[in-house]
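dumping this here before i forget
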Amino acid sequence: MDTSEILKRVRQIEIKTRGLSNNIFAGEYHSAFKGRGMAFSEVREYQYGDSIRDIDWNVTARFNKPFVKVFEEERELTVMLVIDVSGSLNFGTISQTKHEMVTEIAATLAFSAIQNNDKIGVIFFSDRIEKFIPPKKGRKHILRIIRELLDFTPQSKLTDIGLAIEYLTQVIRRRCTAFLLSDFIDHKNYQTALTVANRKHDVVAIQVFDRRMAELPDVGLMKICDAETGHELYVDSSSHKVRKAHHDWWKNRQYILQETFTKSNVDSVSIRTDQDYVSSLMTLFAKRN
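structure:
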């Protein structure tokens, strides 16, 4: 993709995803992802029932009557997008690749974040940390993130989710909301890393998958290539037995994945590339309220 094509695509994604975050997600995002705690707002006169721990003794001494501190929710968050850029994300058979959908979802979350005055940063990962963009505010920063998503070329095609989560835990010191966007095709166990990360941060898992991962089409002999390892094999998709075995494998894989999220206490959503991600995200947000 040349520079003019990238800029055109960035603009298209900005128009679509900023519109979504403005019109749909603003309130839901705000209520679903709370701030770090309570921040001092103002003082008012003491009322019956107020806690004496909230008394502002300096103001009380100055006016010779008791005043209490009023606190409000501290809204500013740090939001981290932890994004899988491994080879398997380039797969897509219906309307768009997994990578294209991840890009749109990431951009929508990013614009929702800056509407709430939150900082946003990114970790791109494969089986290594490909790139770290520290959290910042502003439209220019988000457009840089979208440009990187569109044009980034990873050094590796493999996946190591555990490594990415451990890196998040190490590099982001203060509590953040972290969206982990991946197809979660990883044969290693990362449950412990996910549990540790979610104790320190608020981790949300967003799985993006293609319909053909769940069900093989009946089209006869197919050559299947693993996008991460390059391994090729032929499959007879006209066989009902083969198609059922593949579907059973997928159901078992999804069950194990959901078990991992449940045991790690991580909220999650699975989104198919030929479906509307807006309603899926809205359901996720509503579940957190």
